[in-house]
Design brief:
- The complex is a heteropentamer, with two copies of chain A, one copy of chain B and two copies of chain C.
- In chain A, 24% of the residues lie in helices and 35% in strands.
- By secondary structure, chain A is of the alpha+beta class.
- Chain A has two domains: 216 residues, P-loop containing nucleotide triphosphate hydrolases (Rossmann fold, 3-Layer(aba) Sandwich), CATH 3.40.50; 120 residues, OB fold (Dihydrolipoamide Acetyltransferase, E2P).
- The relative contact order of chain A is 0.12.
- Chain B has ten helices and twelve strands.
- In chain B, strand 5, helix 6 and strand 6 form a beta-alpha-beta unit.
- The longest helix of chain B is centred in the N-terminal third of the chain and has 13 residues.
- Chain B is globular, with a radius of gyration of 19 Å.
- Chain C is 78% helix and 0% strand.
- Chain C contains eleven helices and no strands.
- In chain C, helix 3 crosses helix 5 and helix 5 packs antiparallel against helix 8.
- Chain C starts with a helix and ends with a helix.
- Classes of the chains: A alpha+beta, B alpha/beta, C mainly alpha.
- The interface between C and E is large, with 70 and 70 residues.
- Strand 17 of chain A pairs antiparallel with strand 17 of chain D, so a sheet runs across the interface.
- Bound molecules: adenosine-5'-triphosphate (2 copies) and magnesium ion (2 copies).
- The site of one magnesium ion has 4 residues of chain A, from helix 1.
Chain lengths: 342, 253, 230, 342, 230
């Protein structure tokens, strides 16, 4: 990885809680000013990784470099440059205004305090006239969440980390948050880390999305992550049952619990079950959703196969040819060799 | 038969000196009565009797006792024994008092405004002190800065006197204990003793059974009979604290 | 029973007639308890925060020690402090014995463990999310302490109220260290002890009521304050 | 409304906090066994409505009938039949197992306790072997949320209310929750109320979705809700600016703050800007997303116009004709008279 | 100063030599404090829960009254209880005066306000979400109370520890109601008062150390228990 301009470099970071390993990042460099997404199932270590990078938690082992300097006892000073919106919203027992102003006050910033707070509130869609004087408990769930976000935005930090910022936030506010994030990036070159389950939203606000699985970064972007257990199938291939009789066939994994990564572009979609084809995987599914892709020439399909949801990216042209529409029954085709292992 | 229990209210001096701890087993052996006592100030002891909470009283404030009997709270007052008071003061004796005349000593203290610690707690000792001032023709110096009213027990008052280089009046028993606490070299010495006015008379009273139906008048009578008996009187005379006799029995007077 | 009603009447009388002895005792009480409370809160709250906020190996034991000190009898505190400030003690030169500041110092010994223990409990009872939120907002050291205490304000106030009750109602220390010297170091409680010792139970109750009245005034003022910060 | 078999009937329910009106439901009947969705922006009163129906809060005025009996002081008994998963997850300071078992224990149910708890955990995707013994704080955000849900599912209540159950839950778990909900409905004829911002998921688990806005139910299903302010435009019509120069034109509203409802099926999509057309509204937008609709012959499009997101439902045939795909620039067309007022 | 070290040595001696008078006082102390603590917790915790959990118009005032009772001096409690249980008082027939149960009753008067006030604070400090969650899980009445108390267990424990410290260390009540009768109602604290009154300061300190030792044993046991319920 490129060593210049890494705002963060992590080496061999491991974390464990009560004897369970929950994070294992061999090496990573995050460039200054980038916007990084984190996605992955519950318990995959997203929040843990954010807490470590926000200097709230010391990893079991490994080294964190911030701005090319090894972090070692100077966390309190660094916390002034890095702020994390925690997953569970929490407000101090004071008014909305005082909550948002808190971080500025402890930094000794009193200039334009009111303007800055009001601006932050407005940027998350809360009118200061209506909300500034409210007490911490006089808010709906989504409003509280947005006040928490405003109290981070107002700090104009070097690094802004958001853990599930859109959970319980309405659609219009999510759009506003997207704009607020874009604006803070542009004005202050803020580096961003955002963990979210809302992949569509996440794709819109980040440059790259890391997929996490059981404490590891298993890929980036929209890769399909297929977890085990794998068991031997015929012809030296291995399989994973999907529960409805269908199964995914792959080449031999390292362990039976290994995680397979399947690139969404290596999936072929067909309206008919193909008769003679070399690919081992021919699975029946249904298009659930169609989304814009980061590449304007492509579209992203979410296809449900049994309980499993595949993401696959096809060209607009292919989509037009197929007359792809949500609800359409189709076949998902890929080769046993197109998975890579994590 | 079950042990019979006699409840007595008494002043702190009889308890603190260990006299009762010494007498109670003899009393028990002779009468099979267990003596339980509450050691409080004389005023409070009398009040407990008034409320019928004890059966018998052992106190040392003759004037109050006589009134108490007159009011019908107590009966059968008998005198038992006495010890004496002394006036003590700093070794340097700044006011230069001494001898055996209480009146002279107090007058010197007053005229020189030498510090004097008073218990100020309505105890037998305090009442005695007030009488001494009166008998010496001096008004009670309540608001004088040199007159320190401690409102506490004897030992504490002596300690305060020692800390403040003041004179005070105490019963001899407490002073003997105080001396012993300092291993025989206390900061205060006896300066005035032997005046007839300094006698400290102890008496026993039964709580009036006509007012208080619950009291064990029979046991109380047994106790006062026993205390005035020749055997008990001898025991009192033999009681020694740190090798010194404390009480002089005088039931026969 | 008679004492109680008699005491009530005496209490009203003492207060309304401006009885000088009573007022002297009231002022001594107020002086001693204000001094000791300011000192105890200043020392006890920070220590309580440290004990409640940080995790350290001996924490459990430190806590058991502080909790044990809650059981210090006032006489024992009196004796210990007396040993230090008596003229022959190491701090004898300050002349604290038989003075109101002396009482206050000894009361602090009594009351600081209460403030520490209850403040620590208050801090431990805070939402786990608070700590992380303060850190990530950039708060440090004193700021974390102040904000945490302000989040736990009711429980910290309860600690102060409990400590105040203990300080204002204790008698052993005022007796031993103050000496119950009339016009100087006689507090309401030592006056009560004195009157009770004399058998003047009604007067004891009356003075007790005066004390309770004083305590109520303080607590009522606090409850108004509390509503304001709600 | 039909009076028979209403498990809930609400009349004239109003609620206000600190003088602000937050809920106003004139009359509504909910049939037994139905699954009702609630959607709407933050602060629109969803949680408040759920709290009132779960008997946790007494409205300022109005009457609640439960099973045709007026609720009046018998809330504690009714709370045994109705359970609400609150918006903010909260666990008792005990193990996961004890948290899930709590409701059963206080009901005095000890039979098959372990099996029931384990079943509930499994139904939200948590392996009992791995999670049952964990303490309340040894969970990730989404795991905690799912434990909370399990502690409700295990009760097999007559009425199950879920406030934002999928916030911070991963996609696969959301699918499992969907199945768990379907299964409890089928087995115990549970009536369901679910508030969520995840409309796609919500549509899949509910029979009808009420749209809420400022304390009122302003429509049902996927209607577009267009809030004011409205101001007079030419020809006696009124308009709302969209911020990018475009505006929505409607017939005269009652007040300038009235809320307009636009049926998604009354919107026409065109690839070209139509030249001569009577419809007043011809707005330029882009297809963001395509979803399955409840009617298998139709598809649902989410179209972004300025900051506003329109939902419109067109036939599969029309979609094929248009070659509708996410990312496509299109025109949204509807008549000034096709809005109704709330 | 000398008597502090002397006191230390005496304390060890008293305990190791099995001094019967000391052990009698220890047992009386334990008996009185166990009785009074059981009663106080049984009465005080439910009342504290009610005061902390429910909102009612006079709540603020009720709170101020309870907090005021924290300032009740032991002598006054002693006097009040005495007025009731003295032979001539309304409860005279029970014969509680100069008995250990009598001491316990009076200590309860002293200690219940502490338990109520600190329990109420503990309950008020609970997460707001708890109440709604319990209701919606179907908990009622006693179940809500028990679960809330168990959620606030550390703070309730702190209330109990504070109350215990107060009960075990008080002297005015044991003196007034117990009468400090040797072998019967002499507690460690009244024995301390007696020794101090005699000027036997070292012995006073020694007994004080015995008391502290007792309190430490209790608190240490609690801290082990606390870790178990963590
Ligand atoms: N305090 C803790 N003690 C023990 N285990 C914990 C603790 N906090 C988290 N875990 C475990 O650590 C793992 C990683 O948790 P983390 O919160 O980082 O996940 P996440 O990716 O943020 O999940 P989610 O999407 O649910 O927020 C999970 O398996 C979780 O159960
Ligand atoms: N305790 C309270 N005191 C005052 N106002 C409150 C209180 N709780 C909620 N509100 C207000 O009531 C309105 C309705 O809140 P409610 O929580 O029902 O909204 P909601 O639809 O659930 O929103 P969200 O999507 O954010 O969860 C909001 O305007 C909110 O600000
Ligand atoms: Mg997380
Ligand atoms: Mg809500």
């Amino acid at each position: 990885m490129n060593k210049k301009d890494c705002i963060y470099r992590l080496y061999d970071i491991r974390q464990a809680y009560g004897g369970r390993d929950v994070l294992d990042i061999p090496e990573i460099c995050i460039e200054k000013g980038k916007s990084i997404g984190l996605s992955g199932p519950n318990g995959s270590g997203k929040s843990t990784m954010l807490r470590i990078m926000a200097f709230l938690e010391t990893p079991l082992s490994g080294e964190v470099y911030f701005n090319e300097k090894k972090v070692n006892g100077d966390e309190p000073a660094l916390r002034n440059q890095v702020t994390l919106l925690l997953q569970e919203p929490f407000l101090l027992k004071r008014t909305v205004f005082d909550n948002v102003a808190y971080g500025l006050k402890i930094r000794g910033i009193s200039e334009n305090l009111k303007d800055r707070v009001n601006h932050a509130l407005r940027s998350v869609g809360l009118y200061p006239e209506e909300f500034a004087h409210r007490r911490w408990y006089e808010l709906s769930g989504g409003e509280a969440q947005r006040v928490c976000l405003a109290s981070r935005l107002v700090l104009r930090p070097k690094v802004l980390m958001l853990d599930e910022p859109t959970a319980s936030v309405d659609r219009r506010s999510a759009v506003m948050m997207k704009e607020a994030i874009a604006s803070i990036r542009q004005s202050y070159e803020t580096t961003l880390f955002i963990a979210s389950h809302d992949l569509i939203w996440l794709n819109q606000v980040t440059d790259i999305v890391f997929r996490m699985y059981e404490g590891r970064i298993v890929g980036s972007g929209t890769e399909n992550v297929i977890s085990g257990p794998w068991h031997p199938d015929k012809d030296g291939l291995w399989a994973r049952e999907l529960g409805d009789g269908q199964k995914i066939i792959v080449t031999q994994p390292e362990k039976d619990t290994s995680v397979a990564i399947l690139d969404p572009t290596s999936i072929i979609i067909s309206l008919e079950k193909p008769a003679e084809i070399s690919a081992q995987n021919i699975l029946q599914g249904k298009i659930l959703q169609m989304n814009m892709s980061s590449d304007p020439e492509k579209v992203e399909l979410h296809i449900q196969v049994a309980r499993f949801s595949f993401t696959c990216i096809i060209t607009r042209f292919a989509a037009e040819e197929l007359n792809a529409l949500p609800g359409l029954d189709i076949w998902v085709i890929f080769k046993a060799t197109s998975v890579s292992w994590q | 038969a079950q042990d019979q229990v006699l409840k007595m209210a008494t002043t702190t001096s009889t308890d603190n000196t260990g006299l009762l701890d010494y007498l109670a087993p003899f009393f028990k052996a002779d009468t099979n009565i267990e003596l339980q006592w509450v050691a409080v100030g004389t005023g409070k002891a009398l009040e407990l009797g008034k409320n019928c909470d004890v059966d018998v009283l052992l106190v040392h404030a003759p004037d109050s006792e006589i009134e108490y009997v007159k009011a019908g709270y107590g009966v059968d007052r008998k005198q038992l024994m006495f010890n004496d008071f002394v006036i003590i003061g700093p070794k340097k004796n700044p006011a230069g008092i001494g001898g055996s005349s209480v009146a002279e000593a107090l007058k010197v203290i007053e005229s020189k405004k030498a510090k004097f610690a008073s218990r100020g707690d309505n105890s037998g000792t305090h009442k005695k002190e007030l009488i001494l001032w009166e008998n010496s023709g001096i008004e009670i110096p309540d608001k004088e800065a040199w007159y320190i009213q401690t409102g506490q027990g004897m030992i504490n008052t002596i300690n305060i006197a020692a800390e403040r280089d003041a004179y005070t009046m105490t019963d001899r028993g407490t002073f003997i204990k105080y001396e012993a606490n300092w291993k025989g070299d206390p900061p205060l010495d006896i300066l005035v003793e032997g005046d007839a006015m300094l006698r400290n008379q102890y008496s026993v009273l039964a709580v009036n059974p006509k007012r208080c139906e619950n009291v064990k008048y029979d046991l109380a009578t047994k106790f006062s009979d026993w205390m005035t008996s020749a055997k008990a009187q001898k025991l009192v005379g033999d009681f020694k604290l740190l090798e010194k006799q404390l009480f002089i029995p005088n039931a026969s007077e | 029973m008679g004492y109680i009603s008699e005491g009530f009447i005496s209490a009203l009388h003492l207060l309304s007639s401006g009885n000088v002895e009573t007022y002297s005792a009231v002022f001594t009480t107020l002086k001693a308890s204000s001094l000791s409370m300011s000192g105890s809160l200043l020392i006890g709250i920070p220590l309580g925060f440290l004990l409640g906020y940080f995790e350290f190996p001996a924490k459990r034991h430190a806590r058991a020690v502080v909790d044990t000190l809650l059981a210090l009898p006032t006489v024992v505190v009196g004796l210990l402090v007396y040993a230090f400030i008596s003229r022959r003690g190491p701090l004898g030169d300050f002349g604290l014995l038989f003075t109101v500041p002396g009482i206050a110092v000894a009361q602090m010994v009594l009351v600081i463990p209460i403030v520490i223990s209850l403040t620590a409990t208050a801090i431990e009872g805070l939402d786990r999310r608070l700590r992380l939120n303060l850190l990530t907002l950039g708060a440090r050291g004193k700021q974390i302490a102040l904000t945490s205490l302000s989040e736990a304000r009711y429980a910290v106030l309860a600690a102060a109220v409990t400590a105040y009750g203990r300080a204002i109602s204790e008698v052993g220390i005022s007796m031993m260290i103050g000496g119950n010297i009339k016009w100087h170091t006689r507090t309401i409680t030592t006056a009560i002890a004195l009157e009770t010792g004399k058998g003047q139970f009604a007067m004891g109750i009356a003075l007790g009521l005066v004390l309770i009245f004083l305590a109520f005034a303080v607590n009522w003022a606090l409850s108004v304050l509390k509503r304001k910060t709600d």
